[in-house]
Design goal:
The structure holds two protein chains of two kinds. Chain A has helices at about 20-40, 80-90, 130-140, 155-165, 170-180, 195-205, 260-275, 285-290, 305-315, and strands at about 45, 50-55, 65-70, 75, 95-105, 115-125, 150-155, 215-220, 235-245, 245-255, 300-305. Chain A is an alpha+beta fold. Chain A has a domain at about 20-150 and about 245-330: Bira Bifunctional Protein, Domain 2 (BirA Bifunctional Protein, domain 2, 2-Layer Sandwich). The longest helix of chain A has 21 residues, at about 20-40. Chain B is an all-beta fold. Chain B is built from one helix and 16 strands. Chain B has one helix at about 95-100; strands at about 5, 15, 20-30, 40-45, 50-55, 60-65, 65-75, 80-85, 90-95, 110-120, 120-125, 130-140, 150-155, 160-165, 175, 180-185. In chain B, the strands form four sheets. Chain B has a five-stranded antiparallel beta sheet. In chain B, strands 14-13-12-15-16 form a five-stranded antiparallel beta sheet, with no helix packed on it. Chain B has a four-stranded antiparallel beta sheet with strand order 2-3-4-5, with no helix packed on it. The model of chain B has no long low-confidence stretch (mean pLDDT about 90). The chains are: A alpha+beta, B mainly beta. The interface between A and B is medium-sized, with 32 and 22 residues.
Chain lengths: ~325, ~190
C-alpha cells in the first residue's frame, strides 16, 4: 500500500518532511536504474567483486570488520571494491563500474551507516580531469535540482580563500595556530600529524562554507593525502573530491599504475597503523601479484556515496531516511 | 570511574568536561572518507546551563559524570537550603540556591520533583510540569468576565507571578504549567 500523500508525518525544523519508507525504496530503485543506464551508455561493463575477502584495505583511516571463518581464517568485509576492480583492470577488463555494498567500522551518524552503497568506476584512458567532468555529469543527472555548473577549486585555494593559510607550504605550527584561533571548540584536541590537522580544518572550517545548491570539486591534494592517486610534477596528488555543501559525495584519482608504488604506499599505511596501535591488516597480495605482471592501464577511478546522493535527490536530512533498514533497525 | 569512548556518545550521556558535569545534547560524526574522524559535540554544562561546542577525535575517551535523576518530594526551605526526601528510602537532601534556581518559585510542600544528583549532591531541581497553586495577590476579579481576554498578573502562594484572566480572585486555586509559566485553568479544590 503506498503511503498516503500529505500524511501526518511531522515536518522537521527545517520545514522538510522525511520521505516515507516506500518513497525512499522507489527513489533508490529509480536512481539505481539511472546509474546503470549512465554507465552502460558510456560503454562501461558492469562487474561484481567479492564483499568478503582475505585481504583488507591498507588505509590506516579505515576500520574494517574482520570476521573469523573456520575454513578460511580471518576474512574482511570490504571497505571499497577498489583493489578487486584494479585486478580486473590489470587483467584487461577495460572500463568497468560496480554498484556494491561497502562496510566501515565505527561510522554512524547523519551521513554514515556502517554498511552503505558505493558506486565505483574506472575509465580506462581517462585522466582525473575527464573523470571529474563525468562524475559531475552523473550527479547532475541523479540530482537535477543542483546547479549545473560545478565549482572547481584547488585544495590550496580553498584553504587560502577561507582561512588565509597555505595547506601545502605553511609549516604545521601555522596550521595549528589557525585551528586554534578559528576553532575554539578544538583547542583541547591532540592530533597525531599534519594530515589530521588538515582534515580538521577541511571538515570544520573550509567545507562547511561550500555552497549547498551546487557541487564543489576540490582538486590537487597534498601528496601526503594521495592515497593511491598519481603524484603530478608539481608534487601534488591528482585526486579530487566532490562536495555538495559540506557533504562529501565522491572521491576520485588519476590512478597510480606501478606495482612498486602500491607496495610502498601499502607499507607506509601499515607503519601508520603500527604507530597508532591499530590492528595489522593482511595486505592484498593478489593485487600486488596482478601488478607484478604489468602496470595498471592508464585510468582514472571514482567512488560515489550512493546513499548520500539519494539523500540529496530525496531532500532527506538523515541517511536513515533513505536506507531500507538503518543499522538500528536490523 | 566510568569512561566513555566517542563511539558511545549519544544525546543525554553525562560526561565530565573541564571538571564540570555535562550532558551531551547533540553529537555529529564527521569523517572525510580518507581522513581522520571527529565527533563534533554540543554539550550542556549541568552546573551553569551553558551550552558549548567541543570536537573530539573519534575513539578518544572521556570520563563519565556520576549524574542521576531521582524523584523526590519537596519538604520545606529554611531560606538557605530546600529540603527533599526520597519517597522510597526517606533519605533527605538539601539543595542550595544554585541548584534550585528558578524552580524555587514553583515549589510547594509535598510536590514530587525531579532532582538531578551529581556524586549524590543536588545539581538541579525540576518541579512537576503542572502544579496547582493558590492566588495570594491579584486585582479584584471582574465578575461576569469569563472571556479570558486581557488578563492581569497574579501572585501565587509560592511566589511565582503568572498572567491570569480577569475573573480570577485571591484564594482561587490555579493549574499552571511550570515550563512555560502559563496559567492553564482554574482548579477545583
Amino acid at each position: 500500500m503506498p503511503a498516503p500523500r500529505n500524511s501526518s508525518r511531522p515536518a522537521r525544523e527545517d520545514g522538510r518532511t522525511a520521505p516515507a519508507p516506500l518513497e525512499a525504496l522507489r527513489g533508490r530503485a529509480a536512481l539505481l536504474t539511472q546509474v546503470r543506464a549512465f554507465f552502460t551508455q558510456r560503454g562501461y561493463l558492469e562487474v561484481e567483486t567479492p564483499v568478503l575477502g582475505r585481504a583488507g584495505a591498507a588505509d590506516a583511516q579505515l576500520a574494517q570488520f574482520a570476521v573469523s571463518d573456520p575454513v578460511c581464517g580471518t576474512l574482511y568485509l570490504q571497505t571499497s571494491p577498489e583493489y578487486a576492480m584494479k585486478r580486473l583492470l590489470a587483467r584487461g577488463s577495460g572500463s568497468i563500474f560496480q554498484i556494491t555494498k561497502a562496510f566501515r567500522q565505527g561510522e554512524g551518524g547523519r551521513f554514515h551507516n556502517p554498511e552503505f552503497t558505493l558506486v565505483e568506476w574506472y575509465g580506462v584512458g581517462y585522466d582525473h580531469r575527464r573523470l571529474m567532468a563525468e562524475s559531475c555529469a552523473l550527479i547532475a543527472r541523479l540530482v537535477p535540482s543542483l546547479k549545473p555548473e560545478p565549482r572547481l577549486v584547488s585544495f590550496r585555494q580553498a584553504f587560502r580563500d577561507r582561512l588565509g593559510v597555505d595547506p601545502i607550504e605553511d609549516p604545521t605550527d601555522v596550521l595549528q595556530e589557525c585551528a586554534y584561533t578559528r576553532l575554539p571548540a578544538t583547542r583541547e584536541l591532540v592530533l597525531d600529524d599534519r594530515d589530521a590537522l588538515l582534515d580538521l580544518l577541511m571538515s570544520h572550517a573550509v567545507a562547511p562554507h561550500f555552497p549547498a545548491d551546487g557541487l564543489t570539486v576540490i582538486t590537487d591534494y597534498p601528496a601526503s593525502q594521495a592515497a593511491l592517486a598519481r603524484i603530478n610534477p608539481q608534487g601534488l596528488a591528482d585526486r579530487f573530491e566532490i562536495y555538495c555543501g559540506p557533504l562529501e559525495l565522491a572521491n576520485g584519482f588519476h590512478e597510480e599504475t606501478r606495482r612498486e608504488e602500491y607496495a610502498a604506499r601499502f607499507a607506509a599505511e601499515a607503519r601508520k597503523r603500527h604507530a597508532r596501535g591499530l590492528p595489522a591488516i593482511a595486505q592484498d597480495e593478489q593485487l600486488l601479484a596482478a601488478l607484478a605482471l604489468g602496470d595498471l592501464p592508464d585510468c582514472a577511478g571514482c567512488a560515489l556515496g550512493f546513499d548520500r546522493v539519494l539523500m540529496l535527490a530525496m531532500n532527506a536530512a538523515h541517511i536513515n531516511e533513505v536506507l531500507t533498514f538503518p543499522i538500528e533497525q536490523t | 570511574m566510568t569512561t566513555y569512548s566517542t563511539n558511545e556518545f549519544k544525546n543525554g550521556l553525562k560526561i565530565m568536561l573541564d571538571a564540570d558535569p555535562c550532558s551531551i545534547i547533540e553529537n555529529e560524526f564527521v569523517k572525510p572518507g580518507k581522513g581522520q574522524a571527529f565527533n563534533r559535540v554540543r554539550i550542556r554544562n549541568l552546573k551553569t546551563g551553558r551550552v558549548v561546542e567541543r570536537t573530539f577525535k573519534s575513539g578518544d575517551t572521556v570520563e563519565g559524570a556520576d549524574v542521576v535523576d531521582v524523584e523526590m518530594q519537596y519538604l520545606y526551605s529554611d531560606g538557605e537550603f530546600w529540603y527533599f526526601m526520597s519517597p522510597e528510602t526517606y533519605e533527605q537532601l538539601g539543595a542550595d540556591k544554585t541548584a534550585v534556581g528558578d524552580s524555587a518559585k514553583w515549589l510547594k510542600e509535598q510536590a514530587l520533583c525531579l532532582v538531578t544528583l551529581w556524586n549524590g549532591v543536588p545539581l538541579s531541581v525540576e518541579p512537576p510540569v503542572h502544579v496547582i497553586l493558590k492566588v495570594t495577590e491579584t486585582d479584584p476579579g471582574l465578575r461576569g468576565d469569563t472571556s479570558g481576554g486581557g488578563g492581569k498578573p497574579a501572585t501565587l502562594e509560592t511566589g511565582a507571578v503568572v498572567r491570569v484572566p480577569l475573573f480570577i480572585n485571591v484564594g482561587d486555586s490555579l493549574k499552571v504549567n511550570t515550563q512555560t509559566g502559563e496559567y492553564i485553568a482554574r482548579a477545583k479544590e
